[in-house]
Amino acid sequence: MGGNIFLLVIKATVGIISRSQAMIADSINSAGDIFASLMTFIGNKIASVPGDKDHNFGHGKAEYLFSLFIAISMILVSIKTIIDSIMSLVNGSQLNFSWWLVIVCIITIITKFILYIYTKATYKKYNNILLESSMKDHRNDCIITTFTLISVFLSLKGIYWFDGVVGIGISAWICKTGIEIFMESYNVLMDVSIDEKTKEIILDLVHGYKDIKAVNEISSTPVGYQYIIVLTIAVDGNMTTYDSHNLADMLEKNIAGLDNVYKAIVHVEPI
User: Fold this and answer.
1) CA distance 14 to 6
2) For residue 258, what is the domain's CATH number?
3) Domain end among 189, 217, 241
4) Residue 233, by phi and psi: left (phi above 0), alpha (psi -120 to 50) or beta?
5) Is the pTM of this model over 0.90?
C-alpha cells in the first residue's frame, strides 16, 4: 500500500500536468491497487475469524464479498477513463512531453518489479491465493507502464494518438481484471462446486482404500478460497460400525490435508 500510494501521487501529478491520458489511466490503476489492498486486508481480517455458533464454518466468504467491492469500483473507474481517453483522441489532445514522465515511468517499473519479486517470494513461502493474485498484478503493471513509457517517447516524434490508445488499453485491462474478479467472487458466493482436477484427486484418495466399494455421492461448497467436501461412500454391510467409522475418519483426514479443502465430511452406507 505504501508503494502504491507513492506511485499514485507522482503519476497523478505528472500525468495531469503533462495531459498524458496513459499516465492518468496508470495513476487510476495505482489508486485501484491501494483500494484493492485495503479491501483485501479488511476482508482477510474478517475471513480469519474462526467459526462460532452463528457461523459454523467460519467467515471465509467475507474475503469474496470485499472482492466484489473491488471489482465494481475497478469497472466503474475504467469506464470513466476509457471515455476520457476516447475524447482525447477525438479532440486531438496533445500531451506535453516532459522528462518527468520518463522518470516516473522508470520509477514505477522499478518499484513494481521489486514488489513483484517480494510478493513472489512471500507467495512461495505461504502459498496464499491472494498473494498469487497480487504477484501477477505487479507483473502486469510493469508491462502496462512500459507501454506508457513508449507513448511518451513517441510524442517526441509528434505521434500523440498512441497516448490515447495506451490510455484506452490500460483502462480496458483494468475493466477486464475487474470483471474476472467479479465473476470469481460471484461464483464463490453462489456456492460453485470444486474444480474437476481437485475432484479427481479426491476420488484417487478414495480409490486408495480397498474397503470402499463405491462413491455414491460427492458434493462441495466453498468457504472463502477453500471447500467443504461431503462424501457418501459404500462399504461391506458386514463391516462393524467401529471399523466403518474409523475408515471414514482416516479418509476425512486425508481429504482435509489438501490445500483447498477446509473440511471433509464422509457418510458411510452399507451394501
Assistant:
1) 13
2) 3.30.70.1350
3) 189
4) beta
5) no
The gap between the terminal CA atoms of the chain, to the nearest Å, is 58
Distances, alpha carbon 29 to alpha carbons 18, 81, 108, 131, 171, in Å: 18, 10, 12, 18, 8
- Stretch 204-211: mean pLDDT: 93
Task: Return phi, psi of residue 264, to 5°.
Answer: -120, 135
Based on the fold, state whether residues 158 and 28 are members of the same structural domain: yes
For the stretch 211-240, pLDDT in tens is 999 999 899 988 867 899 999 999 999 999
Q: Check: CB of residue 63 under 8 Å from CB of residue 49.
A: no
Strand segments (E) across the chain: 212-223, 226-235, 261-270
CA 147 – CA 137 distance, rounded (Å): 16
Question: Using the 8-state DSSP alphabet, how is residue 224 labeled?
Answer: T
Q: Within this chain, do residues 128 and 208 fall inside the same structural domain, yes or no?
A: no
Phi, psi of 232 (to 5 degrees): -115, 115
Cβ atoms of residues 144 and 72 within 8 Å: no
